[in-house]
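FAQ: What does the model actually see?

It sees only this:
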Amino acid sequence: MIKKALTIAGSDSGGGAGIQADLKTFTVFGVYGMSAITALTAQNTVGVQGIFEITPQFVHEQIKSIMTDIGTDAAKTGMLSSEEIVHTVAKAVKKFNIPNLVVDPVMVAKSGDSLLSENARKAVYQELLPLARVITPNIFEAEALLEKKIENLEAMKQAAADLKTVGCEWVVLKGGHLDIQSQAIDVVYNGSEFNLLKSVRFDSKNTHGTGCTFASAIAAGLAKGKEPLQAIKTAKEYITEAIRSGLPLGKGHGPANHLVGIKSRW
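And it is asked to produce this:
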């Protein structure tokens, strides 16, 4: 039986991030992808031109439809937009016993446009992070959640330890925004041991959707029964190659190449 993964996130009309990136990634990893859309965005490589929020009630209805019929082996959250939607998603995760939750606390688009209100940030920290098996904040998101600056590797370790106290099982603090000896270093922490995942840091503007893609790859691994650290390491390898072969589309930040490693049938 094929394994299943659910994305609870916003739609990116440009296809580089959001549910579009998630579903592409699920497919590459061989899991059946499903979605509950939290918001529609008019978005391309240069920015977000508009956001249309889905009502919290309809977000719940989408999750209910999936969980009372198909079910899921893992889920990931992305853009949740409002405090009310965060409340709704957290309640649904508990109500339907959604397993292997990966929380990507999406706050800002690659273009700099805000995707999460201040009250919603607090709700993510208090209500959603404690339910997660894995959380995947980047440096800026961790700074916003913890309300402090993170400027070096030691500060990243401390931040990961601080985030672990909210109750999640694993923290992956992504370090791609810090240039540490030309490396992108992610700090992985489970409460007892730090793992540093290192890769070459590419000087590329084609990185739109990398956070969504990375979190979805982890969720896919968990859906297939992989242990968290193995799923995280495999996702790191995948996103590194996806960035290496990023697609120079549009006039701004092009997307990572979600189909890296897939042989075309044409």
